[in-house]
């Protein structure tokens, strides 16, 4: 029989009233109606909400950046559903902890009661740990709710993923973050509504900007700003004002949404590479700065920038490889932050250079032929003949020495028998390759 929702909310409120609970914990939404943002999941007609409220939720993976409500949604499910709710953290729990929960769930199942297993940061579970819960998810012993900041396609076992529905949570908008801050300032029970604390519009906007779409960060920063402002006042009886100066001195810098080992790493390097390829110098420099600001290894960036030079510029600008190699050496020699300018110079050079992937395409076709066609012997006229025997059997016979001919160009075959006449490299009409294209056409004619 379903527990009364209000009773479950009361239990949830009790946990939030623990002494000295952080503001972010106190302000955590308790119901779907209090939840702000993610309307595609919690709106009155949203499928996720309807499944929860009708107690028919199956196993799900909640995927989204930090501070957007994944854990909160799971806890709201705990207040609404009639199933038992068990929570484990992938950071601190092991297989033994999972077995205890599974045994408990089996006992509940024998009594006709379902168990929801919430695994926070499920991407931190290794394959063995994920395999351990697969059978009980499959047979319905537990309903899984997994929360992850990483792409579940890469971090969750395919078998487990196929038995779960993935729901994507989006970073909160600035307006949504502003509402979170305003609610904390006005709430008399869980926030600062009963205190003489005022925040200026400039300070509020600064908090919103610094939060980067992370509600938890916005509340943590607000709490810190309040503490700094209170410490600055002469007495508690005075009204505490949080102004722009208070926020900037307390926070110092925005919350950085970047994990150099996670999906954001790959998303940003993809954006950088494609911006360079598309000759957008401003976007290229922006994505470079985002990665460096997030703590990316500058030598990793140098390696990828060198790859851009060979893949997307090639001989359209032969200086590209030299410039990027010089940037790598500069980063290695002078370190950071000075080395950032060398990377920026290389990125700007590549973005503004003429583009060609002719070498890249040629190399791909060549390696395919090397792997898939018979490796015929080197034509006999191209073979070295260091001994009399080798000369006697024809090694090197008929070879035309290029420097004996006008322009040092000779018309002789250099490919194996089965690949004679095959052409891989097709210069573009851009940059230096335009000259090569003319030269190659005249040679072929």
| Strand order within the widest beta sheet | 2-3-4-1-5
Strand content: 5-15%
Distance between the termini: 87 Å
CATH topology of the largest domain: Rossmann fold
Structural class: alpha/beta
Helical fraction equals: 40-55%
Query: How many domains?
Result: 4
Rounded radius of gyration (Å): 32 Å
The main β sheet shows up as: 5 strands, parallel
Query: pLDDT below 50 for ≥5 consecutive residues: which ranges?
Result: 1-12
What's the CATH first level of the largest domain? Alpha Beta
Please tell me the overall pLDDT.
Answer: 86
List keywords for this structure.
445 residues; alpha/beta; Rossmann fold; Helicase, Ruva Protein, domain 3; Zinc Finger, Delta Prime, domain 3; 4 domains; five-stranded parallel beta sheet; two-stranded parallel ribbon; 21 helices; 7 strands; 52% helix; disordered N terminus
Provide an overview of this structure.
- By secondary structure, the chain is of the alpha/beta class.
- The chain has four domains: 31-168, Rossmann fold; 174-251, Orthogonal Bundle (Helicase, Ruva Protein, domain 3), CATH 1.10.8; 263-351, Zinc Finger, Delta Prime, domain 3; 370-444, post-AAA+ oligomerization domain-like (Orthogonal Bundle).
- 52% of the residues lie in helices and 7% in strands.
- The protein has 21 helices and seven strands.
- The chain has helices spanning 5-16, 23-26, 39-42, 47-53, 70-80, 95-110, 127-138, 152-155, 158-162, 174-186, 201-211, 215-232, 244-251, 263-277, 281-293, 298-313, 319-334, 339-351, 358-372, 388-392, 433-444; strands spanning 60-63, 84-89, 115-120, 143-148, 165-168, 197-199, 240-242.
- The strands form two sheets. The chain has a five-stranded parallel sheet with strand order 2-3-4-1-5, sandwiched between helices. A two-stranded parallel sheet has the order 6-7.
- Helix 6 links the parallel strand 2 and strand 3 (115-120).
- It is elongated and about 100 Å long.
- The termini are far apart.
